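Here is the promised in-class demo. Please do not try to memorize the tokens; focus on the logic of going from shape to residues.
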């Protein structure tokens, strides 16, 4: 009945900054852009980014009132986007060269290593390397 996660929505007020981060720093590719003129909040701009079969839908309501940034406090609901990486140290090194620093980690366990970065809007992104034995 249910097949897979189709996409993840990511709301931002600065879509070009967000798109640049996900494409340049994380390797997503832009698939498509769309604009929906009439919504309850005014026009909606959409950009679909893909990585390894996963789609992130970057959304922006340019005419909407200001949107407060995401709190870093623990809260109910989705916590982060997690990306699998081949080599956690190489991924963190590459990101640091692009000006993206880890918020924490890497933490290495027997079966995996993980670290966390933030996108330009402060959304958490976990990086995870699995050790297959």
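The designed amino acids, position by position:
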């Amino acid at each position: 009945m249910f097949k897979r996660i189709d996409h993840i929505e990511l709301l931002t007020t600065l879509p070009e900054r967000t798109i640049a981060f996900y494409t340049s720093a994380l390797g997503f590719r832009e698939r498509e852009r769309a604009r929906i003129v009439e919504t309850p909040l005014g026009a909606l701009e959409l950009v679909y980014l893909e990585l390894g079969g996963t789609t992130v839908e970057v959304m922006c309501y340019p005419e909407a009132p200001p949107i407060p940034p995401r709190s870093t406090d623990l809260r109910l609901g989705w916590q982060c986007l997690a990306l699998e990486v081949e080599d956690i140290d190489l991924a963190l090194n590459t990101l640091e060269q692009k000006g993206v620093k880890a918020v924490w980690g890497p933490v290495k366990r027997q079966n995996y290593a993980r670290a966390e970065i933030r996108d330009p809007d402060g959304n958490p992104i976990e990086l995870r390397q699995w050790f297959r034995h």
